[in-house]
């Protein structure tokens, strides 16, 4: 097909003066449509957070409140300040002004989940619940659903596992600028205080099929159809969250004004759009086609090193309960004991390629929020041992859950190798302490 051969020229009307109908909106709407088929929310976690986190409230019953915020500078490891978009929760003091990443949302399988979401700042946003399967209206994919405004997202999680939520409007930029948080679907009884469970701590359970891995005690098989809330789950004593990310500081410096990332449409959209001086001459056009990260982070913690180097985060770093749905003790650097079951949830939030290797054999139990070998997928896959020192390759948005149970003490590191997505050039080695005593 050619635009230059008259026979193939598709006549199009000018959009001058009507850009808003055709291009991404620049300014946030003040309101958004009501949620279709609104049900009563049944998620018990916001009330648990209000009861256990100091100063926390639950302003809308059984409902998460989320603010999508624009334009906060955070200091990197070397003191450089970069612009971030942050996710806030006005019900939780520690999350009120936004955090990077956003607060981790834990939700039991099967509840009716509501998030009342407000966009704050100059740019419109959405939330996409990555890996969850909501209705189209609640899927939060920019340009196919509404931009916020404010909106109550509604969905029901059906698979226990690791997910994340992120802004899906001008995604390349907004996701890179930090508008994401981790999302964990837990067994239906995870926040049910009966049976003497420590619902604000560990052990907890996650989905797995460990019929062939007797080294992990406490695995319960059975069938999901039985209604047993812990069928096909295993308990874990220690939980670590690794959200692997990379940051191109040039993007932050050049792209702080949203207008400059859009072409101004000419008389023939797609043919004579103007890619220069599209914002009254104040900013030049900046397109997200060139990505060269120079900062590297895990779960918001900077790896303190320059491009081309190897650097470690400190031991003993964990996430406060305030940012983990009231659950105390989730780790980033791993500190555990011999013969404890350790669950590491890994999300690749980087745009470059990453390779994660461990100083110990790990068992991969779930990929992208689906537990390997657990119905209805049992026929098609199964958990497997990933040998010590060999890299697990991951790309953007992937989640991998691994279990570790060490028989001997370990004082080492997991390594995250970043390689350029186009050239495969080595970028950085980030190291995360793993200390098992
Ligand atoms: Cu956004």
Layout: helices, strands, pairs:
Layout: H1 19-22, H2 45-52, E1 63-75, E2 81-88, E3 102-108, E4 113-119, E5 128-130, E6 150-155, E7 161-166, H3 171-176, E8 180-186, E9 204-207, E10 233-236, E11 238-247, H4 249-254, E12 295-298, E13 301-302, E14 310-312, E15 334-336, E16 342-348, E17 353-357, E18 362-367, E19 370-371, E20 384-386, E21 392-394, E22 399-404, E23 410-419, E24 426-436
Parallel strand pairs: 1-4, 3-8, 11-16, 14-24, 15-24
Antiparallel strand pairs: 1-2, 4-6, 5-7, 7-8, 9-10, 11-12, 12-13, 16-22, 17-21, 17-23, 18-19, 18-20, 18-22, 23-24
Bound molecules: copper (II) ion (CU).
- The top-level CATH class of the largest domain is Mainly Beta
Order of helices and strands: HHEEEEEEEHEEEEHEEEEEEEEEEEEE
CATH level-3 fold name of the largest domain = Immunoglobulin-like
Q: Categorize the overall geometry.
A: globular
How much of the sequence is in beta strands?
25-35%
Radius of gyration: 23 Å
Largest sheet: 8 strands, mixed
CATH-level-2 architecture of the largest domain:
Sandwich
* Average residue pLDDT: 89
CATH superfamily of the largest domain: Cupredoxins -  blue copper proteins
Quaternary assembly: single chain
Structural class by SSE content: mainly beta
Q: What's the number of helices?
A: 4
* Helical fraction: under 10%
Bound molecules: copper (II) ion
Low-confidence stretches: 19-24
Give the number of domains: 2
Write down how many β-strands occur, each being a DSSP E stretch of 2 or more residues.
Answer: 24
- The CA-CA distance between the termini, in Å, is 65 Å
